[in-house]
Design brief:
Layout (H helix, E strand, L loop, with lengths): L2 H16 L14 H10 L21 H12 L25 E2 L13 E7 L4 H15 L5 E7 L4 H18 L6 H13 L8 H10 L4 H8 L2 H17 L6 E4 L3 E4 H4 L2 H16 L2
Parallel strand pairs: 2-3
Antiparallel strand pairs: 1-5, 2-4, 4-5
Helix pairs in contact: 5-8, 5-9
């Protein structure tokens, strides 16, 4: 083969080896293993990822205003709300639960809230009430200016309730000016029962007693059956249930404290307790 013919055949071979379809991928030239190692040694090493190279977290933004609020809040003391401010601390002589009982909730009183009300619950036929009478009368002569004494007759049974009606008839007639000397009449009722043995068990016996002290039969009858007396009896009956009265004489101060001679230890001590409870109610 001539030199020229050899060259033509070689050129045709080369052209047919690189050709192919239009969508054929271009292949990278083959490299021997030795050449691969040489290329790898010459390529710079890939950088190693470090935490610093990773995405940095969002920066914490400090708000000076928030710091100041927290500092100020730390300096301000916490004050708890108080629903009921206790009375000013004093060296009280008597003890709640021993010398007197607190009634919860506080119960109504007969009068208004302008004064501390001291209520004596009594019965004309009670020996202890008869003995306590001079003590409470002397105390009433010097009752504190911010206090008042009221009397509530017991209403436990028919006879006791009859005497309660006697008391309220007496009270209305005194207010109407039909009984000139209230204390004299009151002492006469006690004396009639305890010294003369007259138990006043009927309306006639009671009317006769009123007549001895200048009350006409008409005034007595009209007052005895009046709506005013009936209303007072209903209130007395309701208050005794509310106060939990089981014996007389009993004393309730301002609808809140209940006591008696048994708890106090005697009548002089009972009057001391009354004075102390008035003082306690006065400094609320």
């Amino acid at each position: 083969m001539t030199r020229i013919s050899f060259l033509v055949v070689l050129l045709a071979f080369i052209v047919s080896g690189c050709g192919g379809s239009d969508d054929a991928a271009v292949q990278a030239p083959k490299v021997s293993p030795a050449e691969q190692n040489t290329v790898a040694d010459e390529m710079p090493a890939a950088p190693v990822a470090t935490p610093a190279d990773e995405a940095e977290p969002a920066e914490m933004v400090e708000e000076s205003g928030a710091e100041e609020d927290e500092t100020e809040a730390a300096d301000v003391p916490i004050v708890l709300a108080q629903a009921d401010v206790p009375a000013a601390k004093q060296d009280w002589k008597f003890t709640e639960g021993k010398h007197y009982q607190r009634m919860v909730p506080t119960q109504p009183t007969i009068g208004g809230a302008d004064k501390v009300e001291v209520a004596e619950i009594f019965w004309y036929g009670c020996n202890h009430c008869y003995t306590f009478e001079p003590f409470i009368n002397r105390w009433a002569e010097n009752v504190p200016a911010n206090a008042r004494l009221v009397r509530i007759p017991a209403t436990w049974n028919p006879l006791v309730k009859l005497h309660a009606q006697l008391y309220y008839t007496e009270e209305v007639l005194v207010s109407n000016g039909k009984i000139a000397e209230p204390e004299v009449f009151r002492n006469a009722v006690f004396a009639e029962y305890h010294r003369r043995g007259n138990r006043l068990t009927s309306i006639d016996a009671i009317q006769e007693l009123f007549a001895k002290h200048g009350v006409s039969e008409e005034d007595f009858t009209k007052t005895w059956g009046s709506f005013e007396v009936s209303q007072k009896l209903r209130i007395a009956d309701d208050l005794q249930r509310r106060y939990g009265i089981t014996g007389v004489p009993a004393v309730v101060v301002n609808g809140k404290y209940r006591t008696g001679a048994g708890e106090a230890g005697g009548y002089p001590e009972l009057l001391e307790i009354i004075d102390e409870l008035i003082a306690k109610e006065s400094v609320r």
